[in-house]
Amino acid sequence: MKSWNLLYAFTLLHGFLYAFAGDTECPKTTAVSGDRRTNKNAFRIVQYNVEWLFVDYYNQADCPGEQCTWKNQTEALTHLSYVSNVIKDINPDIVNFCEVEGCDELNMIIANLQDTSYKSYLKKGTDSATGQNTGMITRIDPLVDLYRTEDRYNYPIPGSKCGYTGTPGTSGVSKHYITEFRLNNVDVAFIGAHLLAYPTDPERCAEREAQVQLLQKVIVDYYTRDYEIIIMGDFNDFDGKILDANNNKPISQVLDILKGNFGAYSGKYQLYSVADTMAQPLRFSDWWDKNNDCNSTANEFSMIDHMLVTKFIKDHITISYIYQDYDEFCGKYNSDHYPVVIDLVI
């Protein structure tokens, strides 16, 4: 209880300071990359959309506030404590977070964990409407500062089957970061991304396909330089080849583009979904209360959170699962997503 009170006081102080200073980013790595794992031969990597992990007030989204899942700072702090407990239970070496506000929240998770082996890294994006970002906590420091591509891509892309008939436009990847790790002398490009929402909306589908064309360019660049690749995030889309528990099928080619099966760089590389290593009935990572009755049922789950990896990484996965150890319902303090987990031995 004492540590909770200290954290609450710390958060109130941050809320006051950053009302004026704006939220923080922390993309800079250390001069010498550290490795604070207890087991140097194993890596546990987690993808987790933590549903509006906001403590510092963000005006445009009114979060925490009446327009947000968490109506006040007390609820936001409770949510943060639930997220921290999930992380503690999984005990990952690297976590990619989606829907996190900034480094303040990442550092509060680390404080809750009381684990100094973690460091926080986040490169702020450009989604000013939500203020959401992607970031990580990790026991292994990246080799390069987190960076982004600020390019934009025309949509609809050639060959799109989204059904979008509106005015053509351009789209950028508003929430993502790119960095590099060396995992036991293996060079790995690491990309965390949160793509535009609404899997079945034709316009969002077209915009998402443009987003992943930009990421495909990043992937092929690393692939031609002999990097292993891990790209993960909330892609807000389904995999049409490795179906989820409810056989959801995409209207987009987002996953095929990222895997290297379609798009401008089709056939230049190949990535694989870690979901292929899981039994189909267990492939669900997100709850959408489609009938608005506030109770989750089996047909309301889907898999829109993904990890795609090169063959070398896939071949070295020893454990893969989706952590589904909490219930989904209206009024819960856990996320409406579940963490995707893999263990690597390299």
TrEMBL record:
<dbReference type="InterPro" id="IPR005135">
    <property type="entry name" value="Endo/exonuclease/phosphatase"/>
</dbReference>
<dbReference type="GO" id="GO:0003824">
    <property type="term" value="F:catalytic activity"/>
</dbReference>
<dbReference type="InterPro" id="IPR036691">
    <property type="entry name" value="Endo/exonu/phosph_ase_sf"/>
</dbReference>
<dbReference type="Pfam" id="PF03372">
    <property type="entry name" value="Exo_endo_phos"/>
</dbReference>
<feature type="domain" description="Endonuclease/exonuclease/phosphatase">
    <location>
        <begin position="79"/>
        <end position="311"/>
    </location>
</feature>
<protein>
    <recommendedName>
        <fullName>Endonuclease/exonuclease/phosphatase domain-containing protein</fullName>
    </recommendedName>
</protein>
